[in-house]
Design goal:
Rossmann fold, 2 domains, about 15% strand
Length: about 325
């Protein structure tokens, strides 16, 4: 086995998968057929890369999954020599519900309520603060997203078939995660506590809000594009001086959930979808390079459009 302690330490990137807080797994996201290969490529580019499992809504409600993300960061920092990690250069990357969890963990540095359970104090001296966050099509303001506190009520209590009560997986998973009542009533207090916009803090030096890159398709029908806009607006309000230092939003035009593009026949357009995924990866990796690698290294990527399936995008 290679002794990583003999090599210079590398920045750490931790990926947090999506799945509506109720499912998903660490080896896949969006339309990638080999997501472990994507993570391996990032590792070959100069990083230590980890992809997490966390407790889903059927196992532990909020904030259990956020604590799991923080526990993973502390564990990896505590084993920095073993894994060859630079403890001062750590970033989180999440997609969908994973972007919610990763942004919550990123923005709640030093918030004791999210401290992971550590009864033996094994990692008590390790920080869970991070130096960067990338979010793909994440929900960041759950009050805005779900709005009416009774949004899940009919989905749970008035199904077309009475035998299907409480079996809508999307509604049940969200209700369980947010500790809503079994009848689907979800108090705004619960939604607010699980909203990353709540934790953007003006005391940047003390609470260390990290630089952020958000990437979202403006035709997303599951988590609206406005969710990323809401986080950007909150960051700019809290950090009005040089807001681009804190957050940037890459808008990919015309793509839906997971950067997917559908044809007029409602079939997947593989060409445009592939281009959107490559654009998202290019800007994600460039963000990590900018904020985590040695500034003397020339490691920026260039996104090359395919003329057969050009896509629109802008910051």
């Amino acid at each position: 086995m290679q002794d990583l302690s003999l090599k210079p330490p590398r920045p750490l990137v931790v990926f947090v998968h999506g799945g509506g807080w109720r499912n998903g797994q660490k080896r896949g996201t969006s339309e990638f057929t080999d997501f472990p290969g994507v993570l391996a490529f990032l590792a070959k580019s100069g990083y230590v890369v980890a992809s997490l499992e966390y407790r889903l809504s059927g196992e532990e409600p909020f904030p259990g999954a956020v604590k799991d993300v923080k526990a993973a960061i502390r564990f990896l920092r505590a084993n920095a020599v073993k894994f060859g990690i630079d403890k001062n250069k750590v970033a989180l990357w999440g997609a969908s519900a994973g972007a919610n969890l990763a942004s919550l963990a990123s923005l709640s540095c030093n918030v004791k309520w999210f401290d992971p359970i550590d009864p033996k104090g094994i990692y008590k001296d390790e920080s869970d603060c991070v130096q960067g966050f990338v979010g793909w099509y994440g929900p960041y303001d759950l009050v805005q997203l779900f709005g009416d506190a009774t949004i899940f009520e009919k989905q749970l209590t008035e199904p077309q078939n009475k035998d299907d009560a409480l079996k809508n997986p999307e509604a049940v998973g969200t209700v369980a995660f947010l500790r809503c009542a079994l009848d689907g009533i979800c108090p705004h207090e619960n939604l607010t506590q699980a909203s990353p916009v709540k934790y953007v803090d003006p005391k940047a030096e003390e609470y260390k809000d990290p630089p952020m890159l958000l990437i979202h398709g403006n035709a997303d029908t599951a988590v609206p594009y406005q969710q990323s806009v809401a986080l950007v607006e909150k960051v700019k309000k809290v950090h009005p001086q040089d807001p681009d230092k804190w957050v940037k939003l890459l808008t990919i035009e015309g793509v839906d959930r997971g950067f997917r593009k559908k044809t007029a026949e409602n079939k997947l357009d593989p060409c445009v979808t592939h281009q959107a995924l490559m654009l998202a990866l290019t800007e994600t990796f460039n963000f990590f390079n900018k904020h985590l690698l040695d500034p003397t290294e020339d490691s920026s990527w260039t996104f090359t459009q395919d003329p057969q399936c050009e896509i629109g995008y802008h910051f």
